[in-house]
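Chapter review: from sequence to fold.
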Amino acid sequence: MEEMTRRELAFCYIYSQEVQGQNSKAQVKLFLDCTEVEDGRAREYVKEIAGGIKEYNEEITNMIANNLKSGWTIDRISTVDLALLKLAIYEIKYKQIPFKIIINEAVNMAKKYGEETSPAFINGVLAKIIEP
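The token string follows.
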């Protein structure tokens, strides 16, 4: 099995917390221990992302909801797509990582983990969010 990037690990954690409805320091530690992440930088990155998304979850969720096509609600978004969007938005808005890098990474992860329509959906929502 190929080794996951730290961004993929963060995505997997966000996905798991979306499914479980929990995001706590204990959950992050359990996730990192169960996935046997030994890279200290990757562990810190996942902890930082988890904490940031927990802190800004309401704002991030509102950004997603406000940039969906007419007639769409956040409940219609697959858990994979929602986790990818939350990760990407947090990194763009709160970590100030250049949006071109993040959108490219999010679309690539959508191709790998999402449904057939996921890459275009992720790209479309993120493009609307970064519009000036």
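Two observations follow directly from the output. DSSP finds six helices and no strands in the chain. The mean pLDDT is 91.
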